[in-house]
Amino acid sequence: MLTSIVMPVYNEGDSIKLALDGVLSQVVGDVELLVVYDSPVDSTAEPAAAYARADPRVKPLLNTYGRGPANALRFGIDNAAGDAVVITMADGSDDARQINALASLVRSGFAVAAASRYSRGGRQTGGPFVKRTLSRIAGLSLYWLARVGTRDATNSFKGYARWYLDQIEIESTHGFEMGLELVAKARRWRLPIAEIPTSWEDRSAGESNFRLWAWMPRYLRWYVHAFGPRVRRAVQGGEG
Predict the structure, then answer these.
(1) What's the pLDDT band for 208 if we cut at 50, 70, 90?
(2) What backbone phi and psi angles, to 5 degrees, belong to 112?
(3) Please, what is the Cα angle at 129 between 123 and 131, to 5 degrees?
């Protein structure tokens, strides 16, 4: 079975080599690592291509869906061949040792497996105070009030079952809202969602591409969506 790892990047330069080393040193089994960038002049493109020549598991991809992380993620997902798809960032904030566990959970029948900073054993280090606070409030309130199955719906570090991605229509077009969208829709479809605790550390180098206030209305849309009534689907997860 093939695990597809989708990594959106933005001008990471030569530091992408360390990110790729860090991920590939931790995953087991068959894997492809899709490095998705928006422009051929992105500083990540050349180092990623050089890495791919030495390691064919790495697949640099030029995103043709439009600029921004949401489009890069959709492009990566649409080009992923694995039965389990894991999203991770290039900045070292995610714990690559947990990629195997996330992939294993979706293969066991979960539609979504979330790495949670807010479950017991999880933690978050660094990052802007307002962003941390809003993320925690959203995650915990969705867990207790909407029963979404994870305390960290906003975290992008998640695994998805291919059968779920093939059935759902991803509508996100801005920022990293997709992680919240796919949790909200899985909840509305009454699909199983799992979580494992994770330790998240804010990036120590480079520039973050996160735009909190510009993207807030879109996050709020999917937050509210999670509280909606059950939606029937045509195909039972994993059976089609």
Answers:
(1) low
(2) -135, 140
(3) 85
